[in-house]
Amino acid sequence: MRIQAELVDGIDKLATIGPSVTIFGSARLGEQSDYYKKAEELAAKFSEAGLNVLTGGGPGIMEGANRGAHGKGACSIGLNISLPFEESANRYQDLSINFRYFFVRKLMFVKHAVGFVVFPGGFGTMDELFEALTLVQTGKIASFPIVLFGESYWSGLVDWLGQRMLEEGCIGPADMKLIQVTDSVDQAFRTVVRSYRKQPDDRRDNLPDND
């Protein structure tokens, strides 16, 4: 009953938010990190373009993204979860929803997403990244861009995917194209917005043309 209640509550509270970009990243990379600043800058661009920003609602990269989106036009959303080693929800959320279960929370991350931008992070970030890749690969959700931000951080993983998973036949060449790696805020923004504009949805017309 608790699971059902959490699922219904999440779906109900997010029912009318519209298209959103989900931004993931480590809770441990705070204001001193360049990745925090880049997440803040990128989220501001999405919010100004009319796309909501979804994060895990915590500190670090999540705070940077919520901070950038907050007050810029669209909704800054935090999907918070209680953890024994993590601080409480950041204060830059227009809409804050609390979850007990990871799997319900992850459903909400993808339900309204038109793109994922994944900054450097730990096990939780990897879990969210590969869940999205699996759902897109298997056609369980509509395909959307998955951008890995930070070439030096992600290059080893991408190389391993190509040199091990691909060469061993565990994934196909098309699967490698599901991810894009960049250090550029503008490129990450354009990748998501251009993909969104191609969707058969009138909401895309609300986005500005000067991307």
Automatic annotation (TrEMBL):
Among Gene3D superfamilies, the record links this protein to:
3.40.50.450
| SUPFAM superfamilies in the cross-refs | MCP/YpsA-like
What EC number(s) would the UniProt record show? 3.2.2.n1
Q: What class of enzyme is it?
A: hydrolase
| Highest taxon of source | Bacteria
Q: Which GO terms describe its molecular function?
A: AMP nucleosidase activity
Claim: Hydrolase is one of the keywords in the record:
yes
| Key word Hydrolase present | yes
Catalyses:
AMP + H2O = D-ribose 5-phosphate + adenine
CC terms in the record's Gene Ontology section? cytosol
Alphabetized, the UniProt keywords read:
Cytokinin biosynthesis, Hydrolase
Q: Name one GO biological process term.
A: cytokinin biosynthetic process
Which PANTHER family does this entry report, sorted A to Z?
CYTOKININ RIBOSIDE 5'-MONOPHOSPHATE PHOSPHORIBOHYDROLASE (PTHR43393), LYSINE DECARBOXYLASE-LIKE PROTEIN (PTHR43393:SF3)
Family stated for the protein in its record: Belongs to the LOG family.
Which NCBIfam families does the UniProt entry name for this protein? Rossman fold protein, TIGR00730 family
Q: Which protein are we looking at? A: Cytokinin riboside 5'-monophosphate phosphoribohydrolase
Organism classification, top ranks? Bacteria, Pseudomonadati, Pseudomonadota, Gammaproteobacteria, Oceanospirillales
